[in-house]
Specification:
2 copies of one chain form a homodimer. Chain A is an alpha/beta fold. The first copy, chain A, has 2 domains: 155 residues, Aspartate Aminotransferase, domain 1 (Alpha-Beta Complex), CATH 3.90.1150; 242 residues, Type I PLP-dependent aspartate aminotransferase-like (Major domain) (Aspartate Aminotransferase, domain 2, 3-Layer(aba) Sandwich). Helix content of chain A is 41%, strand content 14%.
Chain lengths: 425, 425
């Protein structure tokens, strides 16, 4: 939260004529830049080009299975092993699917609603007012799934260590209608927060009024470090087991931002009871996933070490774009009081909080000069940011020079809108 | 239906000692043959090996789209065009998905239940006793989807021209709880029946008590001819449009038995209203399908003519297996009265009807000698064949010599079980 009363009005007023000129100059340039989504850029996709050819004509799995044919509803054994290593679980605690972890998450929620989950007493859809906790700002597509299925969303603030656990514990203990929580535990979308060990432990141990409460653990950025050292994340399945709640968590990840965003491999993990549940449902939906693409990924990456080495190449491409965002925000906004922002060590976003009541206006103003940002409010349930303050910046896709230009414009817009709000402009 | 009173008891009694010897001889061989599912054999999969390499490093669609990246929730435009040609619809009436048409069908039913369909007045799941018509014998996985979601199944007999339309019309006109019908309209699973023009027209024109009635048109064998000439199938979307019921049909198909059974491409088609409905739901579930695999298929097959040429190669491989099945059934069973069977001009199955009350015993007896057949009853809703007569034969997977051996054993079992039933043995 950035209050209008805390801004440096004097400095803003002095800078105002220049800001107006700069904005008009940007506008005259006729920019057309897109920073709306966390899409990898072409150079990142180029890193995995050998994936396209690594299969050759050898379609057999390590056990000799013909991956061209039907079968294997929960994925190729060696693909399960690879994702088990990524998620820190056993291979029989993994299901490897198609190209989309969102698809696995959506379907898990749909199944919980239509049939219920292990340990529950029936379909969640039969519960009047079934609700999910939505740490916010968060990932818009998680919120869309809830909205789509009529699941109530209870926003809980994000802290630097994860969701506000006092509030989460209170909600989960107090109401059996609260059946789940969405989490992006590492390099969270959009805040970049990595959940602390304490948060993981509290999630695993908290009392739940609903015996079938589930943590939707979207570890989308499990290996997506921007710096040499990763930020450690406590193993939540282990924590849940230790807490005596082994079925509490469903983990998800994918190679969408490792190999190809449109043609990667998604996976989920959890207790064997949860995986058996998912397998039973999957066997109604499909004869099996695309094993050839799973085989490609195993052949190409081999193991977690292979993935980590590959991710360093990603970091070398997008790291400078993140640095540019932080450098320009710092140079333009430090000391003005018109904004605060995250300094992520991984993931795909910088989260910018502008003066309360200004986010929509900033996004509109940037669009007016040709830079598309994620819709203001998108990072909150129902698209409603109560403070109208949060803006998600996604610098991965445009070239570095475009990111620099876009961020200068964004900074100018942030200051101009704050000045208007303060009655200076 | 084959009644025990109609069999040639004299001939069976004469043959009995020999049949017993033959059965014991088969048993002594220690066979291990699997004819349970319609899986392509390795030689068929070999036909598409160039598909694995046809992409090279060229990942761009014809419009220059980077197919490695996110996007395109309803499929690659050129893939939509290809499937539009296969299904005889316009490109904007097609959605191309992942590797499984069963997945698209399952999800369509799930969405109808959770949200309803265009033209309806709410979720089908809210309708007490919601039911589907299930022409039987039919495809077990269709029936599994209904069972999974608690949709009642009303079995309707198959005739040589499609489902018994008098019965279908009566059910659909009489009860708004009847929301759908499963159809495999060409080379039906397992009967091989191709729906007649009259059946297609009656399905399109029939009065439906439910305004949101849907035909689930699983055109799984659209291009899967065994003979040079295809058996024409009337275009059901055209028929539905002409009848003023443009939203009545949802069509499905895939390349599972064209390219790779585990790594093909599935598609669905229907009115733009239906496709918009599906797109809206899909956009909650995924950012998009694997466009690289769609691109592979378009590059490799090019158009319907390319697919048809390819399918002739499939027919050359599996045609002799079907001929062997028919030849052996004819030689062994003709004139005995112990069985009747289909003579399909395409598809993947031969449907064998044995003496009423004998199918389970025949399947068990064949298994006893090492030949696994599809579970008796599987071709009926809830696995319950009221006559215990139908056996699905799937000759595509085993080598020709194994098919011959398996069919001889099956014929021996059919006769032995009939003899037991008749009190001869």
């Amino acid at each position: 939260m950035t209050d209008i009363n805390d801004i440096d009005k004097k400095r803003l007023a002095d800078e105002l004529p220049k800001l107006k000129d700069r904005f008009e100059a940007f506008k005259a340039e006729g920019l057309q830049l897109d920073m709306t989504r966390g899409k990898p850029c072409a150079e990142q996709l180029d890193l995995s080009m050998d994936l396209l050819e690594c299969l050759g004509r050898d379609y057999r799995s390590e056990s000799g299975l013909d991956c061209r044919n039907y079968g294997g509803v929960d994925g190729l054994p060696e693909a399960k092993r690879l994702f088990a290593e990524v998620l820190g679980v056993a291979a029989d605690e993994v299901i490897v699917g198609g190209n989309s972890s969102l698809n696995l998450m959506h379907d898990a929620v749909a199944r919980a609603l239509s049939h219920g989950v292990p340990g529950g007493d029936g379909p969640w859809g039969a519960v009047e007012g079934v609700a999910f906790i939505c740490p916010a700002p968060g990932y818009d597509r998680h919120f869309s799934v809830c909205r789509h299925f009529g699941v109530d969303m209870i926003a809980v603030p994000m802290t630097d260590a994860g969701p506000d656990m006092d509030r989460v514990e209170e909600l989960v203990a107090g109401d059996a209608k609260v059946k789940g929580i969405w989490c992006v535990p590492k390099y969270s979308n959009p805040t970049g927060v990595v959940f602390s060990d304490e948060v993981v432990d509290r999630l695993a141990n908290m009392k739940a009024a609903a015996a079938d409460f589930r943590i939707m653990w979207d570890n989308a950025y499990a290996v997506h470090d921007l710096e040499d050292e990763t930020v450690p994340l406590k193993n939540t399945l282990d924590a849940c087991k230790a807490a005596g709640n082994p079925d509490r968590v469903l983990m998800f990840c994918s190679t969408s931002k490792v190999s190809f965003a449109g043609a990667g491999v998604g996976a989920m993990a959890g207790s064997v009871a949860n995986m058996d549940w998912m397998r039973q449902h999957l066997s109604m939906q499909t004869i099996g996933p695309d094993k050839l693409n799973q085989l490609r990924h195993v052949r190409y990456f081999k193991d977690l070490a292979g993935i980590k080495a590959h991710m360093k190449k990603h970091a070398a491409i997008i790291g400078p774009k993140f640095e540019a965002v932080l450098r320009i925000l710092g140079a333009e906004l430090d000391g003005t009081g018109v904004g605060t922002w995250s300094r992520p060590k991984g993931g795909y976003f910088v989260s910018l909080d502008v003066v309360d009541g200004c986010a929509k206006a900033v996004v509109a103003k940037a669009a007016d000069a040709g830079v598309k940002l994620t819709k203001a409010g998108a990072t909150f349930p129902r698209g409603e940011d109560p403070n109208d303050a949060n803006i998600r910046l996604a610098p991965s896709l445009p070239p570095l020079s475009d990111v620099e230009k876009a961020m200068e414009l964004v900074a100018v817009c942030v200051k101009l809108v704050a000045a208007e709000k303060a009655g200076i402009a």
